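Annotated sample (chain length 350).
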Amino acid sequence: MSTPTTTRSWILNSYPTGMPKLSGADAHIGLTSSSLPSPIPADHVLLKPLYFSNDPVQRWWIDSNPPTPLLPFRSGLGKPVPGASLCQVIASNYDALRKGDHAVAYTGWVEYAVSPASMCEKVEQLPQGLSYSHYLGTMGLTGITAYAGIVEVAEAKPSDVVVVSGAAGATGNVVVQIAKHIIGCRRVIGLAGSEEKCKWVESIGADVCYNYKDPTLSEQLKADEQATVYFDNVGGQILETMIYVMADHGRIASCGSISDYNAGEGGVGIRNYFWLIIKSIQMRGFTAFDLQEDKGRMREIFKQKVEEGKFRMGEQTETVVDATFEDVPAVWMRLFEGANTGKLVTRLVT
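Output written by the structure step:
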């Protein structure tokens, strides 16, 4: 293979305020081509993304008015849509990253990227022949979010009853497994969007999983043991329901609000805020970027538990979609349809 000199990129044409538009004259993103730096600068590498991570937070990275802490990740107009990728090194001008190595980098949606080596994380083959794609999910920021959120933010203990929303998603399924198989929480309750997903969540460790679309969800939760910990992935109505039904002095770890990501100015806040006060509930928001020092320790724990057969990481915990580069945006949009079980990953094919 000759060294590529150009790359195609999905770039941001304009900042969306609601659901991003992928086609038409007013499409928010567009496909373009550009030249790559040649020769490769010192301490840089040429990367070819093999897998793209699909994450709800990318919606904020292209928003017209993102929260201030996300501004460093925001894409400028005319720049590639931001995002993480699992890459192979095609050529290198840096001794510690050689041709053929694998690395995680924030390349954005590009076919090739010349990146500073300092911005790349070299990764090694996982045990039991597990795919490198898990470095975008359980072994990456998704796993950090789950581990740090339930262990350090919520401080879950074996005596706790834990409820996890988005339990069939990338972060939620890891939280369920940590709560049940690593912490040993007394009862773990999942919330997911279909009966099929609920059965899957129960198969990975939840004592029970309720369909959040069921109009009797509140009654089902009230009839169950009262939650002392709630791991919130979604915000919105489910968060409000949990505030009503969980125990006094409960703890909420909040890492996402996907129910509002495409709502624009129509997003709904917590309408029962007063209940947080009268029930003495502690609620803390956090992001994986706050807690990256846990990554090495977390990975070793997960590897050990996989070897012991106490933690699932494999094809069953990720949804890998084969896609051409032209279809990359459409795969990402599946996040907002709830089409994935586990982590949603795009595998580039020609």
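Annotation: The chain has a mean pLDDT of 91.
Annotation: Residues 109 and 135 are 17 Å apart (CA to CA).
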